[in-house]
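Moderator note: this is an archived Q&A kept for reference. The question asked for a predicted structure of one protein chain; the sequence and the answer are reproduced below.
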Amino acid sequence: MSLTPNTMPEADALRHDWSLKEVGALFDQPFNNLLFEAHSVHRAHFDPNAVQVSTLLSIKTGSCAEDCGYCSQSAHHKEVKLEKERLLDVDAVIAAAAAAKANGASRFCMGAAWRNPNKRDFPRVLEMVRVVRDLGLETCMTLGMLDNDQTEALAEAGLDYYNHNLDTSPEYYDKVITTRTYQDRLDTLERVRAAGMNVCSGGIVGMGESREDRIGLLAQLANLPKHPESVPINMLVAVPGTPLQDVPRLEPLEFVRTIAVARILMPKSYVRLSAGRTDMNDETQALCFFAGANSIFYGDKLLTTPNPEANSDMQLFGRLGLRTLDPHENAARA
């Protein structure tokens, strides 16, 4: 499948019925054809030179009951060197959010290493949502699985986005995680949608999966009843002490292909270039932006893993002629 300027799909044509064969055909295109198609789709829906910037803060670190093979925060991975922290005070979150806004972030994301939120800490989590919104930032949280009451409470507090990644294909999932099922993840996404919040959901590549698994992941995301508003595509950060510490790195052009296919499948979603950027050179990142990535995490740290320094990101943006979006532009596209 390839597109010429005369055969571009209509701007509002969204599909939720992609077959694995069709997604595979996109991956198999010659690289230049794939990037041309992805960039054309991207340009039809977004300013091709604008990037949404988010900052991510770990509000509760370590001792997670899940056994995700990539994660430094799992209590199952005893050899990981990680300083555990209790849930942060609200004042600490306010200070971090204000600094993020001053540095150009339009969305503030908060992550807690939980299987699911506990009753004792949940009121403080809701307060965090309210105070960050009061600063004029979009809010996003990732707290693990949610029940109906928790989902409704987050929506009532004004949470804009809830992040819950599918991680990989259904077929590869149990090679990485055994403490919750794929259906558990889909159920949480369904609750988030039912409560009226935006969905942030993507995955991690480079975990030893095949291209067929990357195809399966993107097909799952694109065939959700409504496309996620944000689709983070992470390159595995192989943390020492985790089961995936020795997995060979994914070839960079295959990562760019994954970004491009995500853009074609989900034309109106923000495709976020997420974890793993410290191991990408500027040229790889530039190709990702051309292929349709239009969101990044900004700041020198993600939850527990390194991220490029803020100054280096702004320098790269300057060299590429990219600008950052403000929250009002984000809201206009939601």
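Archived answer notes: The first strand starts at residue 50 and ends at 60.
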